[in-house]
């Protein structure tokens, strides 16, 4: 019976590795969330630049209604 239970005992080294693994996984999750936020900011800035370029290319014709 002792031999069967011995396999379920976790050594301090294994426990430390498991704790480090959990900490690293949490850090990866935080970095992935930060990356998604930065990508969203980049996309919003790019869309704003494109919109301003389109408005500047349209010039004064954008302010006046089109004649049919």
SSE order and pairing:
Layout: H1 2-6, H2 12-58
User: Which secondary-structure class do the elements indicate?
Assistant: mainly alpha
What's the total count of β strands?
0
The radius of gyration computed from the alpha-carbon positions, rounded to a whole number of angstroms, is: 29 Å
Kindly report how far apart the N and C termini lie.
93 Å
The run of helices and strands is HH
Kindly state the mean pLDDT as a whole number?
A: 84
Which strand-content bin applies to the residues?
Answer: under 5%
Q: Runs with pLDDT <50, length 5+?
A: none
Shape designation: rod-shaped
Q: Assign a percent range to the helix content.
A: over 70%
Major sheet attributes: none
Number of distinct helices: 2
Overview of this structure, please?
Helices cover 76% and strands 0% of the residues. It has helices spanning 2-6, 12-58. The mean pLDDT is 84.
Provide keyphrases for this structure.
mainly alpha; rod-shaped
Brief summary:
The protein is built from 2 helices and no strands.
């Amino acid at each position: 019976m002792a031999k069967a239970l011995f396999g379920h005992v976790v050594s301090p080294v294994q426990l430390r590795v498991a704790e480090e693994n959990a900490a690293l996984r949490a850090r990866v999750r935080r970095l992935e969330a930060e990356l998604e936020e930065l990508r969203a900011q980049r996309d919003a800035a790019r869309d704003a630049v494109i919109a301003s370029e389109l408005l500047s290319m349209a010039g004064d014709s954008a302010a006046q209604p089109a004649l049919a």
